[in-house]
Design a protein that fits this description.
single chain, alpha/beta, six-stranded parallel beta sheet, 14 helices, about 50% helix
Length: about 300
């Protein structure tokens, strides 16, 4: 079994999936899986950091210019352009990565980097034939492009990636915190493209795809209603909800009726919580293990994990 991760925004450490990987391995063991399970965390988060830093430097330069020009407001400068640190974090951690990937050439370079990682992984485990993908956040969009998109030029790494899949058994996909539904509306994504790939690649069974959504993750959307009429019988799909509080502050604010503040303080933790060494990560790893093992009956039984 080969399990290949593609990360999303705000990922600066190539070890981002280590905790989740260990939890998945433990869940596989708990389910009496005795064969080899090999994991690889592809990493493109260090590409184009200079572009995000450049954007922040432009903002700082213009802010300082305004402050210099209006010394009469010296004690109010921080109020003229509010939340500067938070804005810079948003650019570096979230918006920057998303916009960088939308640039055709930079997106192509990111897909090329992931293809190179995939080829190394496959070469290191040349006797393994079963492949599973786990993609988080923007990574689910990248995975969509790599596997299914039909708008790229013929020399795009996505097509080379698909050629490699013809030598493997494409078994499962797990998306975590995915905004694919939102982007379906933006780009008019045609989910029936899944059927075209499945007609070309090897499969021992139907392709299994679960979409895991933390209830407080503002970037995560269910997909079933959007996808069910466009996919054929060769795919099993279901949404799964991780119904927990993202952190103690969110829980406390919701308890006193401050839901708007709770949403703000919970959203960032929720978007990353699939990888945490906590209850969210434990639930996520259990759902992934079911998907890897083909235990669709466990997934069909319920789509909401009981709240604890």
């Amino acid at each position: 079994m080969l399990v290949f991760f593609i990360h999303g925004v705000n990922t600066t450490n190539s070890n981002y999936a280590n905790v989740l990987t260990q939890k998945i391995k433990q869940e596989l063991h708990n389910n009496d899986y005795v064969n080899s399970a090999n994991f690889y965390s592809s990493f493109w988060g260090n590409l184009f950091n200079n572009k995000k830093e450049q954007t922040v430097s432009y903002i700082e330069e213009d802010f300082k210019l305004a402050c210099t020009k209006h010394q009469e407001y010296e004690w109010l400068h921080d109020d003229i352009y509010r939340y500067r640190e938070r804005r810079s974090q948003f650019i570096n951690n979230f918006l920057g990565d998303f916009l960088i990937y939308q640039n055709p050439e930079r997106g192509k370079e990111i897909r090329r980097s992931i293809l190179e990682d995939f080829n190394r992984f496959k070469k290191d485990h040349s006797t393994e034939t079963e492949i599973h993908f786990i993609a988080h956040s923007l990574g689910s969009i990248i995975l969509w492009d790599i596997l299914f998109a039909n708008t790229f030029s013929k020399d795009d790494p996505a097509f080379l990636f698909r050629e490699q899949l013809k030598h493997l058994d494409l078994a499962s996909i797990t998306t975590l915190g995915s905004p694919l539904l939102f982007l379906k509306q933006m780009w008019d994504i045609d989910f029936s493209l899944i059927n075209l790939l499945l007609n070309e690649v090897n499969r021992k069974n139907i392709l299994r795809w679960i979409n895991v959504i933390h209830s407080s993750d503002l970037a995560a959307y269910p997909l079933n209603a959007a996808i069910k009429d466009e996919i054929g019988s060769k795919i099993f799909f279901c949404d799964q909800y991780v119904w927990q509080d993202a952190n103690g502050t969110e829980k406390a604010l919701n308890t006193i009726g401050k839901s708007d503040l709770a949403m703000v303080v919970g959203a960032e933790d929720a978007h990353s919580s699939y990888f945490y060494d906590n209850l969210d990560g434990a639930i996520t790893s259990r759902l992934i293990a079911y998907n890897l093992l083909g235990k669709t009956e466990n997934l069909k039984k319920r789509c909401i994990t009981p709240r604890l």
